[in-house]
Amino acid sequence: MTVFNPFPIVRADLRRNQLLVWVTLVLVALSVATGIAVISQERALREGSARAADDFDLLIGAPGSATQLVLTTVYLRPQAIPLMDGGVLAKLSAAEGVKYAAPIAFGDNWQGHPIIGTIAAFANRGGTLTPTQGRMFERQGEALVGSDVPLAVGEQFSPAHGLHHDDDDDHDSEEHHGVTYTVVGRLPARHTVWDRAVLVPVEDVWQIHGLAQGHDPHGDPHIGPPWDVTRLAGVPAIAVKPDSVAGAYRLRGEFQGGRSLALFPAEVLNELYMTLGNVRDLMSALALTTQVLVVVAVLMALLVGFLARQRQFAVLRAMGAGRVYVFSVVWLEVVLLVTLGAALGTALGWGGSLALSHWMQSELGFALPVRLGAAEGVLVGGLVLSGALIGLLPAWLTFRRSIAEGLVSA
Amino acid sequence: MMGLGSALQVTNLRYGFSGQAHALLDVPSLELPAGHSLGLSGVSGAGKTTLFHCLAGIAKPWSGQVCWGDTDICALTPEALAAWRRQHLGLVFQDFHLVDGLTALDNVLLPSYFGHWRVPPGVRARAQDLLASVGMQAPNRLAALLSRGERQRVAFARALLLQPSIVMADEPTASLDPEQRTQLGDLLVALARSQGTTLVVISHEPDLLARLDHNLVLHKGQLHARTSQEVAA
After folding, report:
1. pLDDT at residue A291 above 80?
2. pLDDT beyond 90 at B131
3. Residue A219 burial class via C-beta count within 10 angstroms: exposed 0-12, middle 13-18, buried 19 and up
4. Rounded to the nearest 5°, which phi and psi values hold at B88?
5. Phi and psi of A101, rounded to 5°?
6. Do both A72 and A190 map to the same domain?
7. DSSP H helical segments within A365-391, as ranges?
């Protein structure tokens, strides 16, 4: 078998046809970058949103929309949801197999940061979270801030009414005069929207809104459970930490009924992911279609380029180059262009996806972890393989063409 | 003496396009001793290029033999023919056909890549010597930037790189200005003689043809001898 080196010709051709080279590289790169961005962003959204729901094993709310309950509670999307009878909280708190049953009460904000009334057991996630600064709240009037809240430990602030800060809406942003919280601690970053939240004793939220505070005002002064069932206000949601999987299913069955809605946020997310999956499939199909079109366009451009150079290839063969030599030149040029374009597109898609995640994190409130997975590998590998296969066509046409025909071609 | 020329012996060569009843080219016999030079001329359409292609193994004739030395190139497979051309034949074209994206030196070295991954030892030095001998002063300049005269000089050097026993040139001076025509025509003949190669040239240039050992004219696909007076005219 004859050893040969087609690269001097490949290099010379690529150098000489720079317009074709750059157009091909840009088209392939954009096509790959789009595909990678779509796939990696969909995965990042799925993983990021799932991570945000990790703190909510079982969620109890008033009968209604499960999606609305999850969005409002897990992702703190400001929506008014119906209140549940306070008796549910008391019953859950005393139920067997419950580590904690934490009321989640909304209604106020500080400069757009939602103020959530809850109990200390939820704030430290059953003792698994330790404040990076200060301590947990221990009495009314104390607040624990998420890692992204620009309040220092020791600082005081007044809450404003409303689920979100709105400079143009005086009603929603009305300040609760005379109410002041003191920041006593800061939680570590969880990379969820809860990093933007301010956690206070739920009794404070009830008190500010003129509701019963769950305890006998003349009894033992404390915050959190045990509750006085006769003095419990309605709550929009309860985050339950069961002590076992079996317990979680039992509790869901027990509290799923006319008075309350019990759900696993992960299940609701799964339904969303199925919908999201359909969108992803659609986007993937669009990306694939784009890639096919790009490959076809590139092939046509290269084919025209190769046909225009039939004389050059004929001259090479007349000078002693074998048919395999010119076949290799043509095929390598196609493969090199597609591979380089794919590599460029991978870097572009990866970088673009990172930038998009950074921007979306500030919009959604939870981190979108971008990584390259098998799907992206299949996308890039598939494109390169397609290029390698499709490149066989012009290579074969050049291989088959007679030298005499090539020499007299224009 | 570097290469030793191959003798040419053509027997009953007939060539035509497929589907044609009559041959475009009919050469019952043609002989050229090793190391000699042959000029082919004729009006346009007489079959010069077709004969050139047949002698170079580029076109396959209907019938007959084209023997260079002991090898009947009509009987070779495409790959064997490519190897034969690589080892025995140097080609010069009217339009030079350099690869514009390569330097003059890399163009000369190009044939060595058809049979090797790396340029064999000594071949690079030979390429540089050949470029110097054809008067090429800028071996590292891109071919796209060379003048027509310079391009043809590089083409001459490329044809001689692998010390072929045969050099064939198709109208090698036709696209040059009159001064360069004479200069480069002289150079081609001198180079071929100095290397002992058999030289076949298609040309209409009387000055060039007059320097060759033998001259034939093609008329309607058939060869006729030319006297030196006819050549000079």
Report:
1. no
2. yes
3. exposed
4. -120, -15
5. -125, 105
6. yes
7. 374-390
Choose among A307, A303, A318, A321: nearest CA to A407: A318
Q: Do B101 and A11 touch (CB under 8 A)?
A: yes
Q: How many CB pairs under 8 A join A and B?
A: 90
- Enumerate the domain spans of chain B: 8-232
Report which residue type is found at B26: D
CATH class entry, domain B8-232: alpha beta
Inform me whether the pLDDT recorded for A170 exceeds 50.
Answer: no
Residues 6+ apart with CB under 8 A from B229: none
My answer on whether A29 and A169 are in the same domain is no
- Is residue A108 included in any domain, yes or no? yes
Cβ distance of B91 and A318 shorter than 8 Å:
yes
Q: What ipTM was estimated for this complex?
A: 0.90
Whether residues A231 and A335 share a domain: the answer is no
A328 within 8 A of A4, measured Cβ to Cβ: yes
Residue A203 lies in a domain: yes
Residue A137 in domain: yes
Q: Which residues of chain B does A316 touch, with a Cβ-Cβ cutoff of 8 Å?
A: 110, 114
How far apart CA B233 and CA B230 sit, in angstroms, is 5
Q: Contacts of residue B144 in chain A, CB cutoff 8 Å?
A: 16
User: Could you check whether the bond before residue A82 is cis, i.e. omega within 30 degrees of 0?
Assistant: no
Domain span at residue A210 reads: 58-263
Give pLDDT tens digits for A108-125: 899 989 999 999 999 988
Distance CA B123, CA B136 (A): 17
Compute the radius of gyration of chain B from its Cα atoms.
Answer: 17
Q: Would you state the structure tokens that stand for residue A367, as one six-digit string?
A: 């981190």
Q: Please give the structure tokens belonging to residue B221.
A: 């696909």
Residue A25 domain-assigned? Answer: yes
Residues A259 and A276 in one domain: no
Q: Do A321 and B82 touch (CB under 8 A)?
A: yes
| Average of per-residue pLDDT across A306-314 | 86
Residue pLDDT, tens place only, A234-285: 888 999 999 998 889 999 998 888 788 899 988 888 777 777 667 777 777 8
* CB–CB contact A403 B97 (8 Å): no
Radius of gyration of chain A (CA): 32
Query: Which residue shows structure tokens 């470029």?
Result: B131
Together in a domain, A234 and A368: no
Of B79, B101, B111, the CB nearest to A16: B101
Three-state secondary-structure class, residue B91: strand
Q: How many domains does chain A have?
A: 2
Query: A243 and A146: one domain?
Result: yes
Confidence tier at A368 by pLDDT (50, 70, 90):
confident
Question: Is there a single domain that holds both residue A86 and residue A174?
Answer: yes
Question: What is the DSSP track for B40-70?
Answer: EEE-TTSSHHHHHHHHTTSS--SEEEEEETT
Tell me the C-alpha distance between B103 and B140, whole Å. 5
The answer to whether the CB atoms of B114 and A323 lie below 8 A apart is: no
For tokens 């279609």, name the residue: A289
Q: What's the mean pLDDT when you consider all of chain B?
A: 89
Confidence of residue A129 (pLDDT cuts 50, 70, 90): confident
End residue of a domain, out of A240, A263, A286? A263
